[in-house]
Amino acid sequence: MNADIVESPILADVFGELGYSTAFAITDLELAYFRDLISKQWIAHIEAMHPEHAARFREAGLERYHELSHLISHSDLWPKEQRVLAREAVAQLVQLDFIQRLRALFGIDFRISGVVFFSKSIPDYPEIYWRLVRPGVTTDVGSMHTDRWFHDILSDGEPLYGSDEITIKMWLSIFTEPGRNGLYIVPGSHLKNWRVKYTPGSDGFPRPSLDEPLADDEKYLVPVQPGQAILFNENLLHGGAVNAGSTTRVSVEITFVLKRSALPQ
Ligand SMILES: O=C(O)CCC(=O)C(=O)O
Ligand SMILES: [Fe+2]
User: Fold this and answer.
1) CATH number belonging to domain 10-260
2) Quick check: CB of 253 below 6 Å from ligand 1?
3) What is the CA radius of gyration of the chain?
4) Residue 240 and residue 249: Cα distance in Å, rounded?
5) Which helix (DSSP H) or strand (DSSP E) does residue 46 occupy?
6) For residue 2, pLDDT beyond 60
7) Residue to substitute in 149, 171, 233 for testing ligand 1 pocket (most ligand atoms within 8 angstroms of CB)
8) Can you tell me whether residue 25 is helix, strand or coil?
9) Cβ(236) to ligand 1 under 6 A?
10) Could you state, in order of their start, the residue ranges of all structural domains in the chain?
11) What does the CA dihedral 118, 115, 110, 146 come to, rounded to 10 degrees?
12) What average pLDDT score do residues 82-100 get?
């Protein structure tokens, strides 16, 4: 598509030279809503698995989770299955006005991509999931990748998206310290073809990642305030930054699916 004729400044950036935009944010009230739903799911799972520690975690709260995470097995507790918001929570979130504001800013309609795990996808269940990245823990972040590489292997026999569809990822800060943690992106990288390799994760499923050297100065740690979003192209290289802050980084991911034909050709 020709980014010059896109009227939406956000879409012009996501599909233009940059490949991403930080122009969108949710309101403080909407952020409080996200925080509340995530905190509830987080503490309910801790309560179910480790009732003996739940009171301490509840008192510390999400942002100080890392101070207590040595009490539990972090990697066993938080596979993606435990971080996907429940249907009821999603149903509440999609009623919030930020979805309408995004529609207005895009100037075209979209749907939220469905829940997908390596082992299966779940129909009629829009996917909104969160992530915890503790200060200084290198294993809490993955390597540089494009989401497209995941889409291509998360096919479950059938392609995740039709050839008439295109996706935009929203990475939303719930708790971040700008400049100290968050997401690295490589501006403009969506316009190139990068070599990819596949490494099995602890669950045995392959994880795609960049198979080329990348100079440190090619990566940009996008400074985002809580409530601020990074909207980015499915072909943009990105990856989590090791948390150099003092609080647990919490972020949310949502994939929007748009009809290619709705975009200016
Ligand atoms: O937040 C992270 O560490 C990685 C996020 C990511 O890969 C994404 O938003 O697609
Ligand atoms: Fe990603």
Assistant:
1) 2.60.120.620
2) yes
3) 18
4) 10
5) helix 28-49
6) no
7) 171
8) strand
9) no
10) 10-260
11) -30
12) 98
Nearest to 46 by CA among 32, 35, 56: 56
Ligand 1 centroid–CA 2 distance in Å is 27
Mean pLDDT of the chain: 95
CB 252 near ligand 1, within 6 Å: no
| Atom number of ligand 1 nearest to Cα 230 | 9
Which one of the ligands is nearest to 240 CA? Answer: 1
Query: Is residue 169 within 6 Å of ligand 1 at its C-beta?
Result: yes
Q: Which of 19, 235, 209, 221 is nearest to 147 (CA)?
A: 235
What is the spatial distance between Cα 21 and Cα 14, in angstroms, rounded to a whole number? 6
pLDDT at 92 over 90: yes
pLDDT in tens, 111-157: 999 999 998 899 899 999 999 999 999 999 999 999 999 999 986 67
Predicted local distance difference test score (pLDDT) of residue 185: 98
- Ligand 1 binding pocket includes 240 (Cβ within 6 Å): yes
